[in-house]
Specification:
Elements lengths: L1 H6 L8 H17 L3 H18 L5 H15 L7 H7 L1
Helix pairs in contact: 2-3, 2-4, 3-5, 4-5
Length: 88
């Protein structure tokens, strides 16, 4: 994830939509999993991913992604809250 985020700015703009649509389901799975290390890695990679690929998301997809992140903010254990706050 981190390597992809570091190289995603090299993606041809004509193919960005294809990449982000494929990546979206993977991002949602990572967000919904209960692993703190995955959440931290996603938090580190999200800035670079968003800087390049978020412009190619549709409004409905952005809403789904935000809803998944907000669900982590409501986590009773509180372990995902700092990384989720960074992602939002």
């Amino acid at each position: 994830m981190l390597r992809f985020s570091e190289t995603c700015h090299y993606i041809n703009p004509n193919k960005c939509r294809k990449y982000i649509s494929s990546l979206l389901s993977v991002l949602q799975e990572i967000i919904e999993k209960g692993d703190e290390m995955l959440q931290q890695t996603l938090s580190e990679a999200m800035d670079k991913l968003c800087a390049t690929l978020v412009f190619y998301l549709r409004e409905k997809e952005v809403n789904m992604l935000i809803e998944s992140l907000v669900a982590n903010l409501k986590d009773p254990s509180g372990t995902f809250i700092p990384s989720t706050q960074h992602n939002v």
